[in-house]
Each structure stands twice: as C-alpha cells, then as structure tokens.
Amino acid sequence: LNEVQLKYSKDKSTLNTFTKKPIVINNTYLGYKIDYYLDYFYYRNDTVFFQGAFYFKTKKVNDIEKLKAIKAHRKEVYYGSKMHFIRSLYNNELKKEGYRVLGYNRYKYNYDSIMTHKNSHYINIKNHIKINFRGREESNLYQLTDSIYIAKNGYNHPYGIFWTGYMGSQRLSNLLPFEYNPDRD
Q: What is the model's pTM?
C-alpha cells in the first residue's frame, strides 16, 4: 500500500491516485488474480474514473461446485456489462442480446444511428444514449470525444466514454478478460 500515491486537491475537492507497481487483486468471486497497472484514478462528487492495464490469471479451483459457482458469477457479471454492450453493438446484435437503446430525448436508436465505419468501428452519437438491458437499471453512455473506437472483443477507448447508471457503477470487481466468452466458460 505504500506504493500507491494519493493527491488530494482541497480547492477542487478531487482525489487523484497512481502507482508504479501493479495492484494485485484476488477476485475469488470470478476466479481471477488480476495485476492492475493503475495509470490514473480520479474521484470527485461521486464520480469515479480509473484507467490502467490489467493482466488476468485464472485461479486454479479444484472443487467442482466452487468452479460451477465461479462460472455462473462470470456470466452474471458479463450479461448487461459494458463489455457485453460493446460486443453486441460491434456485431449489430443489440436487440438479439436484449438491449434497447434510446436517445436523450427518448427516440429509439439503431445500429446505423450509433456506428460509423472508417475501416474500423466507431461510436458516433450526439449528446448521449440511454441503454436498457432486460429490466436492469438504466445506463447512460456519454460521448466525450468526436468518435469512440470499439473492438470486437469489447474494448473501447476509455477516454471517449463516460458511463452512468448500472454500467457506470461497474468497477474492478466486475472486470473480465477480453478473451472471456460466456459460451466457452
């Protein structure tokens, strides 16, 4: 813990944090050991933003019942997550996967009104969109840059998106590796 450096700005009421060594997270709920290389952490008025690189290692579990529970937890965390949404959007499968996307004035968005292609996939919206997934709390995606690059594995450029609601509340405990596939787990 001595490796984590904290900087509090009293006049801005912000807390910034960084570290030179990875933060080791043993996530027994999802069965991973995560080495998290924190590049940037920001907290102000109930807004949390963190960015870093992570390396997942699957923890060996010998108990069959515990392994079944871990796999069920992974699926529970995955469906309705940021990763699941980005993958569904990339593959033009929002409706099939259980998503309903609305504009800030509640008009319905579809794939063509969200995505632009420049030899890659980019989110390009005005203002923000509201995301509903199978009756869960609503999520909001705010676009902070001109366009947001997304990849098939669920990656998105982190500085281009600000999430609120259900997806905005997801933290490190909800991270899954980009290799995760619920059909093969």
A: 0.86
